[in-house]
Structures are given as structure tokens and as C-alpha cells.
Amino acid sequence: xxxxxxxxxxxxxxxxxxxxxxxxxxxxxxxxxxxxxxxxxxxxxxxxxxxxxxxxxxxxxxxxxxxxxxxxxxxxxxxxxxxxxxxxxxxxxxxxxxxxxxxxxxxxxxxxxxxxxxxxxxxxxxxxxxxxxxxxxxxxxxxxxxxxxxxxxxxxxxxxxxxxxxxxxxxxxxxxxxxxxxxxxxxxxxxxxxxxxxxxxxxxxxxxxxxxxxxxxxxxxxxxxxxxxxxxxxxxxxxxxxxxxxxxxxxxxxxxxxxxxxxxxxxxxxxxxxxxxxxxxxxxxxxxxxxxxxxxxxxxxxxxxxxxxxxxxxxxxxxxxxxxxxxxxxxxxxxxxxxxxxxxxxxxxxxxxxxxxxxxxxxxxxxxxxxxx
Length: 373
Known about the structure:
- The chain is an alpha/beta fold.
- The protein folds into two domains: 5-187, HUPs (Rossmann fold, 3-Layer(aba) Sandwich), CATH 3.40.50.620; 201-361, GMP Synthetase, Chain A, domain 3.
- It is built from 13 helices and 13 strands.
- It has helices spanning 5-19, 32-45, 63-70, 83-90, 96-117, 129-136, 153-157, 170-180, 184-187, 207-224, 245-251, 285-295, 338-349; strands at residues 24-28, 49-55, 78-81, 122-124, 160-162, 231-238, 241-243, 254-266, 269-279, 300-309, 316-324, 332-333, 355-361.
- Strands 6, 7, 8, 9, 10, 11, 12 and 13 form an eight-stranded mixed sheet that branches. Strands 3-2-1-4-5 form a five-stranded parallel sheet, sandwiched between helices.
- The longest helix has 22 residues, at 96-117.
- The radius of gyration is 21 Å and the shape is globular.
- It is an enzyme of class 6 (ligase).
């Protein structure tokens, strides 16, 4: 059944009016989900809604300023910069779930302070179906899934959560955003996780890794924005790896496994496993797919293939990820032209001499998740 935004708004309007009987803070991350939820709430409830974007320090380059400018005709977005607090609290943490949960704690403590400041009683956020499905399934903790886990937000943080998009999937959210009049830059915007670049700094968090991946993200988005891919981004992880003779023999390619780990989904449950690099002498995506399927039969959750060598003294790998999907519950990797990947890699290598290599992720979802953490 096709999604009808008019019918959806007709159904959600009385629900919102009934639930929100006082002021509400609408949390905007810059992604399409939260921005659409805030715009919808502001259109239906007017000045009862206070749209706020928290600059956590994990946003993309100039993100807060860009988003504020893009939605200026739709709602009066305020930006609150707490980046130093978030960075100091998360620096050095390396476990994916620990990072997500710490981010959630900091994020909602900040929102709690803002709710009190504006004498509000409600928090409106852009949780969608894929968020709570993955969290309830134990695959990974989405920072904006609270009520579905039995968390009493009113007792813990002093506000009730309102989630007008909780039953929608990404493609439906985009349709709603278009109908609401959000600019194309928003409804076609690259999906961006609530914890932002935090979950694209795989493993230990450092300010150096964060700044490198921030620049790499801008480069990947610049080159791939004209392609019809569902999502594309860069990740960074420590480049230390070891040759695996057993897997190499099985698949007929040299296979190396990194010390860094990434989140996957196997048998509908969370898997936190190794990242593997296959070094094959061909660039045939279907042959690489078959290799990936064999490699991930073990505890490996993400498989990458090398695109370009960087600096011998480098200590980081930059991964490029691009996928095709309808609902973000399953996804296929995009078959990016190898020449284009080469151009992207060359520009990424100019960021820092600490980049040892650039690799491309050739894993489907499942067994990988779209993000690495």
C-alpha cells in the first residue's frame, strides 16, 4: 500500500493535540527523521513546539549552521553547542554499545536541562520503525529508543516522549518531508545516525580520528551525491590487521582481519565481530560478493576490499560505505565505479599522512549492519 502523507497527518494531528497539552521541545539531529518530526509538530502545534538542535561535536562539517539555514522558513531552530562536554566524556571509549549508551545518557541529560529551561513537559523526537525494531531485537542500541525499552522518561529526565513517526520507515518519512515542504537538501539528505560521527569512529574515540572522518565524510558525500544510492559515508578504524591463512585458502584470496570490530546482524540477532579485508586480483563485484558470503560465515561481520594504499607510517584505515535499500532493514552494497572510488580515495589520502589505506565495504545487510557501530 502506498503511503499517503495527507491521510497520515489527518490521523496524527488529533493524537498530537491530545498528547501535547503544554510546551514541547523538538530534538533535531539534522537527519531527515528528526527534522521531519519537528517540522510536522511545529506545523500542527505552532509555538507550543521549541525546535532545538544539539551540537554534540559529532556532526558533519558546518552541519548545525546548514540545517538552521535550510529550515529557517519552516521553524525557528535553535542550536545549543555542548560539543566539549560530549567529546571529553566519550574520548577513549571503544565498545560500540558502551559508546551508544553513554551518548544517550549525555544527550537526554542535555535535553532534560533544556526542557526545564523552557518549562516544557514533552520531548518530540524522530524515532522511526527501523530504530526500535533494531533496538528491541538486540542488534544495536539506537539512542532515541526509550519507551519501547521500558525506560520511564518522565521519572528519569522529567519529560514525556512523543514520537509521531514511530510507525514509519525511511522511504515514508521522505515522502512526508516532501509533502511538508522541507527542502530537497533535507528529504534527500543522507541518513545520519543520532550519535553522528561517534559511531563512524570505529573503536576508540579520539579527536584526531574524529576530524579525519569528518573531512572524509565531506569528500564521500561530494562525489556520491549525484549517484542514486540510499546511503553513503566514511568510517575510520585502526589499520592493524593480521593475515588469515585459513580463510584465505578457503576463498582463494588473501584475507586479513583487523583488530577493530564492527556490529552486524546474524540470525536476526546482534553480532559484534571482526572486520576482514579481502585482497583479490579482480574487480568483479559479483565475484567479490561470493567471497564476502564465504568470509562472513565465520565471526566476521563486515568485509572490505582495498581501493588505495596510503602512507606506510599511517595507522588508520578509511572505509567507504554505500548501500541500496528500501526500508533500511536489509541492504545491498552499491557497485561504485572503480575509477570513481579511486578519485575519492586519492582526495581522502590528502587529508592526513596517518591514513594507511582506503577500503570499500562489500557487505550486505545482513550479515552487516549499514553502520559499523
